[in-house]
């Protein structure tokens, strides 16, 4: 499928690239070293309309399309994947609230996370439940007009910033007739009594996107903080994951393109054995591979996003795009370091920081192995 970008989409790319280069790039190394969430960048992204771009204008969104949002994340990740992830993770919460929330929930919790006033977190993963989401052990018991939540979550992004608002958590609310867990989603605002933080986790990538352990000790929330129907939590979450995979793929493309761009620039500036690095065929081949992979990934990602915008099925395309783009991002980050030599392993160089970022992309929203399982099942069913 040929995807022709509109004039508006090309303008969005130009605007986001300029924003990322001028505002994020100069502080990216410090954000990485300090593992600090960039509040001012978040605020500016909200003012530019980047955070809520594909969501309804009625609740503070931009009313745009998903392909445009893909371009936003691609360009942000080209400079700093952690900033892109904060917006992507926030979007996962926004999708749940937008698709399943009541009007009151949307006004209270969705609007602030679309405008940049607040940031949202989604808490599904537990110490013993990652890809097997149905194995979560956190419970929610209805007592009168309140849900009482007990359990723990891990690897939760956006959950402890100064501007964190709603945390959407998944909890077991009973058993189904077949004995499987009945899972429901709940909105738990930061600061709710019984909601506490454990460790801030030290990651190899996405270091400026804060990631925490969460604990719920008889945490009480109003009955109306149930999101959608009781027992529909897993179905709700899974319905947003394919979209998340397109967005993660876009971030992979950003790393891939950034690795390519920086490698070409370095090769043009650097000489060895009396020659410019661009004259060495071994390095030329690395550039050729990166460029080819970037173009292929871009076509796959834009195609999947266009399918979503058209209201067509895109689950398989999302998994294919996520698998290909993230694995090729990892390869490109590796090759960029090889091209840069000793400089490539110094954290002051963006190619070094991109290496850890790329690895994280192969894990989140379903590992590469999970994507292969999904693709294979859809091909043979």
Automatic annotation (TrEMBL):
**Domain of life from the UniProt record:** Bacteria
Q: Which residues form the Acyl-CoA dehydrogenase/oxidase N-terminal domain?
A: 6-117
Query: What cofactor does this chain's UniProt record say it requires?
Result: FAD
Spans through the membrane: none
Any one GO molecular-function label of the UniProt entry: acyl-CoA dehydrogenase activity
Q: Which residues form the Acyl-CoA dehydrogenase/oxidase C-terminal domain?
A: 231-379
Pfam assignment, any one: Acyl-CoA_dh_N
The entry assigns this protein to a family as follows: Belongs to the acyl-CoA dehydrogenase family.
Q: Please name the PANTHER family in this protein's record.
A: ACYL-COA DEHYDROGENASE (PTHR43884), ISOVALERYL-COA DEHYDROGENASE, MITOCHONDRIAL-RELATED (PTHR43884:SF12)
- What is this protein's record name? Acyl-CoA dehydrogenase
In its UniProt entry, the species of origin is given as Effusibacillus lacus
Q: What lineage, starting at the top, does this entry show?
A: Bacteria, Bacillati, Bacillota, Bacilli, Bacillales
């Amino acid at each position: 499928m040929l995807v022709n970008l509109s004039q508006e989409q090309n303008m969005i790319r130009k605007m986001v690239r300029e924003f990322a280069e001028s505002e994020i790039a100069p502080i990216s190394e410090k954000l990485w070293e300090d593992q600090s969430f960039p509040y001012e960048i978040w605020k500016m992204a909200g003012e530019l309309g980047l955070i809520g771009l594909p969501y309804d204008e009625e609740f503070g969104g931009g009313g745009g399309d998903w392909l445009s949002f893909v371009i936003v994340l691609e360009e942000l990740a080209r400079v700093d994947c952690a900033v892109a992830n904060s917006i992507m993770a926030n979007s996962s919460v926004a999708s749940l609230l937008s698709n399943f929330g009541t009007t009151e929930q949307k006004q209270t919790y969705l609007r602030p996370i679309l405008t940049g006033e607040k940031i949202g977190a989604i808490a599904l993963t537990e110490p013993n439940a990652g890809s097997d989401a149905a194995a979560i052990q956190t419970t929610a018991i209805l007592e009168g007009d309140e849900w009482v939540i007990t359990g723990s979550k891990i690897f939760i992004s956006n959950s402890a910033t100064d501007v964190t608002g709603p945390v959407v958590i998944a909890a077991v609310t009973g058993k189904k007739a077949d004995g499987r867990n009945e899972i429901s989603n709940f909105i738990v605002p930061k600061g709710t009594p019984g909601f506490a933080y454990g460790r801030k986790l030290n990651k190899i990538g996405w270091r400026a996107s804060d990631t925490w352990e969460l604990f719920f000790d008889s945490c009480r929330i109003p009955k109306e903080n149930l999101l959608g129907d009781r027992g529909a939590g897993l179905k709700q979450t899974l319905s947003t994951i394919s979209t998340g995979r397109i967005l993660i793929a876009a971030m992979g493309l950003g790393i891939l393109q950034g690795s390519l761009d920086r490698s070409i620039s370095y090769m043009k500036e650097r000489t060895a054995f009396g020659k410019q690095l661009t004259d060495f065929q071994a390095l030329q081949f690395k550039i050729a591979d990166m460029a080819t992979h970037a173009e292929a990934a871009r076509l796959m990602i834009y195609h999947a996003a266009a399918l979503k915008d058209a209201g067509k099925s895109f689950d398989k395309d999302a998994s294919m795009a996520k698998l290909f783009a993230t694995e090729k991002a990892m390869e490109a980050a590796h090759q960029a370091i090889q091209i840069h030599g000793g400089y490539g392993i110094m954290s002051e160089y963006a190619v070094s920081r991109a290496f850890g970022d790329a690895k994280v992309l192969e894990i989140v929203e379903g590992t590469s192995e999970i994507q292969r399982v999904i693709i294979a099942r859809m091909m043979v069913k």
